[in-house]
Amino acid sequence: MIKKIIEKLTDEKLTIATMESCTGGALASFITDIEGASEVLKFSAVTYSNEFKIKMGVDKDVIDKYSVYSINTAREMAFNIAKFANADIGVGITGKLNRADKNNNYGKDNQVFISIYFQNKYYDFDLCVTKKTRHENKEMVIKEIIQKLGDILWKERLIK
């Protein structure tokens, strides 16, 4: 599916940028595994800390009000990375992969929030990670994002 998405984005001259937290760049890695991905991936940032989310444009007030583990923060991440990179699509990912965060005592320890910003719309979802290892949970999240991205492009009639 990711290969088909990259091909379609290339054909349509659309670009993507990612701001990832808990996935640590896994989405960007999946994208760059596909030949020709350099045509579509404009920029990727791994912003593990709140400090660097804020430096990349996430509103501190949003983090303070809703927590770093929220769909609101994921939306900020998606919008701001698209804006920063001048990309058509922005993806923001934040959450916890079965781990407590002593610096941010909010939210469930196994919930991930994802927002995809495309054509002035947000496509938001969250999921509960259930695998035993961080690697398996990252794969679970990325596969879900790829599926949703395909659904969005299909809905927008870019993939048939």
Question: Overview of this structure, please?
Answer:
- The longest helix has 22 residues.
- This protein is α/β, with parallel strands linked by helices and 160 residues long.
- It has one domain: Maf protein.
- A five-stranded mixed beta sheet has the order 2-1-3-4-5.
Concise description?
This protein has 160 residues and is an alpha/beta fold.
List the defining traits of the structure above.
globular, 42% helix, 21% strand, alpha/beta, Maf protein, 160 residues
Count structural domains: 1
Strand order of the largest sheet: 2-1-3-4-5
Total beta-strand segments: 5
What is the oligomeric state here? single chain
Q: How does CATH name the architecture?
A: Alpha-Beta Complex
Largest sheet: 5 strands, mixed
In the CATH hierarchy, what is the class?
A: Alpha Beta
The helicity comes to 40-55%
**Radius of gyration from the CA trace?**
15 Å
Predict the CATH topology: Maf protein
H and E order: HEHEHHHEEEH
The outline comes out as globular
Gap between N and C termini: 12 Å
Task: Determine the strand fraction and express it as a percent band.
Answer: 15-25%
**Can you give the mean pLDDT?**
91
What is the CATH homology-level superfamily? CinA-like
How would you classify the helix and strand content by structural class? alpha/beta
Number of helices: 6
Parts with pLDDT < 50 across at least 5 consecutive residues? none
